[in-house]
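Predict structure. Chain length: 422.
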Amino acid sequence: MKTNVTAVILVLVTFFAISFITNILGPLFPSLVSDFNISLAVAGFLPFSFFAAYGVMSIPSGMLVDKYGEKPVMLLAFLMSAIGSFLFALSPSFFMAMGSLFLIGTGMAMLQVAINPLLRVAGGQEHFAFYSVMAQLLFGGAATLSPIVYSYVVQAMSAGETSGIIGFFVNTVPANMTWLSMYWIFAIVSLVMLVFIFVIKLPKVELKDDESVGAWQIYRELFKNKTVILFFIGIAAYVGTEQGVANAISLFLERYHGLDPVTVGASTVSDFWLMLTLGCFLGLALVKVLDSRLVLKIFSLGGMISLTCALFGSSDMAVSAFPMVGFFLSVMWSVIFSLALNSLKDHHGSFAGILCTGIVGGGLASPIIGIIADTTGDLRIGMVVVYITLGYIFSIGFWAKPLVLNKTINLFQNSNKKEEVL
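Prediction complete.
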């Protein structure tokens, strides 16, 4: 099958745009708390608004794609993202932020559902794994870049730069809310993507039987399956861990070590996403030589140890250890997702929709961490939630019983054969 290069580029750029928009909340958290004068518990409902959209829209989005196709759904998704970004940029308030983030999250959920089958068809099934890894690398690259752009823009505005787009932000964004410039950037990115998608002709996607989204009856049946529920919680635990840590980094470094959230905080969050991306390479190698369940257990323990160093070590240790948490999180999503799909004989498309709905876990962790932190007066105690979610992920390595195990390479096979010959 001939690769549709233009469509592949579109999907890869879409992955980049999704991540660039999605992963900025962490660096913004200290500013949101101070400028809106809200508690950590209340601030936690901002990421909840975003990730709740995944819980609400993942399954319906699959049905929309089945009925109308990928292109209309992608156009609608970026339109919602643009509207949400513009609303918040023009009228910054806490309640507008919640509504705006829900709209943006809805758009991102729709895109996640639409672009994976499109990538398989546009790139060709035989190249799907390669392009999927490339997409994840771009996703990580955008998450790494987003905090750097935020830091640069805010510092340039504070320095009084008036040229180009910085000048537009200086004249448009309130002087005491320079971080709001990021939502103007998100709106611009969404509009550019709208035009990009509109002018490109996309290939028709024919879903395999096990990829198609089923009727509500299938979902009701699946939710009666204990394995489905356990892996749904697993995905929720992973995203809760990822977002719980990412959203706490900048605020933690400011509160406990007095480090500037715009420079050191944003840089550490950027390093967190960079290490999460780089860790994928080691993860890819390990699952070729080890049972993926063992890899999951090793990386879960590594995440707990790194988190402990970050929370209770010195400022220098915290700045180094938080990114290491990202490194150990790197393989968890793909391993949990593959273990889940390999644990069910059929209805993989519907099951994948349920698993994506579990992304709502990313919104649940932050409010719970905030409530505990506000009640106890200690963010470290609030972060106990992350130990619980990592503990659950660790347990998956013990109870998962996939019907198909990941294929591994026996490094000692050739040497053993030589010994037999001798």
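Summary: The chain has 20 helices and no strands.
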